[in-house]
């Protein structure tokens, strides 16, 4: 780029610090360190599963843990509140980082922080899977002292029998943990019928006597488990049932989920039809392949309409399903084969289209800023490694292509480019679907990284840009001018107060955004709030993203 050569001798290049705030990034370039609080948000939303181009998963996780611990030392209550807020709002693709951070806060926080963890625990560990993952994190982090037992036991204690029955049947085990194991760790006795059922103990009412410390006998009466919730009784009946018609009747009566139905029935079309009637959105999205394979979802079948209704805007909005889960379901369903490859099916086109449409609905409502928006996707080599939120095959590179479509479909004045050490026009348009957009990015050759190119290109071509949106891992190093310098040059040359939004796609601690420049701001990729926040930023509206 001729412009670059013209100006570069006057400024430090990217392998030198621009000012005394910059630090060296993993690529040998210099960037700004993000605050520990921005790092916390990146960790909660992006996670570290799958690592990055520059760091193995365990190293990236360690870096993030150190940073979360600093936040806990600085203000533990704020950390726990932030965890709760991000977890409950459904902004993050996965709840595991929130659960992990909560375990850290309980382990490293002071007394008031620990109390706060107790207060929010059941809000963050909402379902059985969350509980099992939290238990596994805690078990690896520390011993089962009284405070840990009380915290985890709370999850069971505060639920009534009906709620607990549903949870323990739908989420029976995870990794090596079963509810019986967790109850045993919590020293939970047999004084509640449903605990005894979970532990596989007998169901009769009984009285057990034991000697107390002073030698007197204490008697405990255990309730008979015939007073257990109807769901558990129905489940026991289901396990014994041998006729398909009876299985279907029981599913209809008790609204069982597919996890509660024995595998022997899982190849029956009618059984899936009965399950689909009351299937939650998330389970519907996850089982599209299976339901197509068993022949329930096929052209002209009325069940296809049931699925389409379940993927409609208002249902998706209410469900809190994350767009990344829809994206992953779309990629799998469209491919016609399961992740493990044993299952194959003929995808129903209407369902593919409905998943594509549902993806956009799963983000917060976006008011277009109507500003001149230049979307620049870092397509360099490093963006092709690691995974976003642990989703297999979803690299930061492909994830940014999907995210850029959300803006493309909202903003009237957008242009999309890709950059590495070269700047290329990316022919992604609002008419693209997710699959074609991802394919277009996949086709671009990878290269070294220069995050200043979007601004330099706009200067050279005299483009009237209001906001640059750069999707990157912030590992810039190749260029002869820093991105911040290039933005200032653009503003001066064009006489436009252009802004630059930096959308971080990896949970590392770097950013090209200068914290002292109010027109540069950090955002987080695949946060459901990001597209709406980007629009607010472009419109000069107040951003309330900061913790
Ligand atoms: Ca790179």
Question: Would you spell out the secondary-structure blueprint of this structure?
Answer:
Blueprint: H1 2-7, E1 23-24, E2 30-33, H2 36-46, H3 57-89, H4 96-108, H5 111-124, H6 128-141, H7 146-157, H8 161-170, E3 173-174, E4 177-178, H9 179-185, H10 193-198, E5 206-211, E6 217-222, H11 230-240, H12 244-254, H13 269-277, H14 281-286, H15 288-293, H16 302-310, H17 313-319, H18 323-335, H19 349-361, E7 373-378, H20 396-410, E8 414-419, E9 423-425, H21 434-442, H22 453-460, E10 467-472, H23 483-494, E11 499-504, E12 510-511, E13 520-524, H24 530-538
Parallel strand pairs: 7-8, 7-10, 10-11, 11-13
Antiparallel strand pairs: 1-2, 2-12, 3-4, 5-6, 8-9
The structure holds calcium ion (CA).
Specify the biggest β-sheet: 6 strands, mixed
Distinct ligands, ions and cofactors found in the model: calcium ion
Number of helices: 24
Q: Which shape, going by the Cα principal axes?
A: globular
Summarize the structure.
By secondary structure, this protein is of the alpha/beta class. The protein has helices spanning 2-7, 36-46, 57-89, 96-108, 111-124, 128-141, 146-157, 161-170, 179-185, 193-198, 230-240, 244-254, 269-277, 281-286, 288-293, 302-310, 313-319, 323-335, 349-361, 396-410, 434-442, 453-460, 483-494, 530-538; strands at residues 23-24, 30-33, 173-174, 177-178, 206-211, 217-222, 373-378, 414-419, 423-425, 467-472, 499-504, 510-511, 520-524. A six-stranded mixed beta sheet has the order 9-8-7-10-11-13. Strands 1-2-12 form a three-stranded antiparallel beta sheet, with no helix packed on it.
